[in-house]
Amino acid sequence: MALKKKISKKAVKKSAPKKSNQLEDSLIELIKNTSAVLPDDVQKVILQALAREEKHTTAEYAMNIIKANIELAKKKSQPLCQDTGTVLFYVNHPVGLDQIEFTKWIHKAVVKSTKLGYLRQNSVDSLSGANSGTNIGPGHPSIHFHQHKKKNIEIRLMLKGGGCENVGAQYSLPYTPLDAGRDLDGVRKVILDAVLKAQGRGCGPGVLGVCIGGDRGAGYIESKEQLLRFLDDKNSNKDLAQLETEIVNTSNKLGIGPMGFGGKTTLLGCKIGVQNRLPASFFVSISYMCWAYRRQGIELGTNKQIKKWLY
Ligand code: SF4
Is residue 4 pLDDT above 90, yes or no? Predict the structure, then answer.
């Protein structure tokens, strides 16, 4: 009898719904918001782009649809795009955070957000194509921990669509087809080549995150981290600041336009970072982000509640 009681207690414990905690709730709120609401700096440049397009053109029509989409998703608290993308977390934390435990809570929040429809069931086994329906699997979500000297925890989230990821590119300089050498002019040439090749695919107008240098892997990681910058910030390196502006201005004169329909807005921004490289190699890694530039961030309070939104 006692054993029976023990067994049934155990069974009840096992089947009882797992309690959520404040960290999980904050993470779910972050995911929900990132999926449905574009940050202010992104909305601002989209509205500027709409105002720039000629009236009654396909470009203006496309930008108006994007604007309506943004407003509707915000109003209904629903995903901005059916592709909720690769889920990328960037966690800045003080020394001593238990990353294994933190990762477990991120996974729980991702599973729950997928059930609630804030994220599409979007992550499949690369060999079989099988979809667990949870968005959890090797490499997904992608979580990047960085220690910092501050006492707080900051969590940034980016949802990066597959279409725009497909038009990212990596060049190894010198790149003879464009006569692009190992200098900033060579970098400029290959970035513009990537924009030309995309031709609005990947749901332009887009934003480029670029890394000069690093190895192939680190270059792509840094290029994505550049997309965490505010669109209206200024690069502290004056040569890179100039190059960022030049890339946007030149791209917007190519006539590719929103979705490749022609027009004045091909890029909404370009952010360039730099990493050391080996003398033998010179990579330029380019991550392309679509207009559905979903990134948001939170600072956690002492009880793991959301203390502040970062964008
Ligand atoms: S590229 Fe961006 S806007 Fe286009 S389908 Fe993918 S997530 Fe959506």
Answer: no
Contacts for 97 with CB less than 8 Å, ≥ 6 apart: 91, 145, 147, 153
Pairing of strands 294-300, 153-160: antiparallel
203 lines ligand 1 (CB under 6 A): yes
Distance 226 CA to ligand 1 centre (A): 19
CA nearest neighbour of 47 among 310, 297, 291: 291
Q: How far is the CA of 251 from the centre of ligand 1 (A)?
A: 20
Q: What is the pLDDT of residues 216-254, one digit of tens each?
A: 999 999 999 999 999 999 999 999 999 999 999 999 999
* pTM for this model (two decimals): 0.92
Nearest Cα residue to atom 4 of ligand 1: 203
CB 227 within 8 A of CB 271: yes
pLDDT band for position 56 (cuts 50, 70, 90):
very high
Give domain limits for the chain.
Answer: 22-37+80-161+294-309, 163-289
Mean of pLDDT values over 156-176: 98
The Cα–Cα gap between 250 and 236 comes to 21
Give dist(CA 137, CA 123) in Å, integer: 7
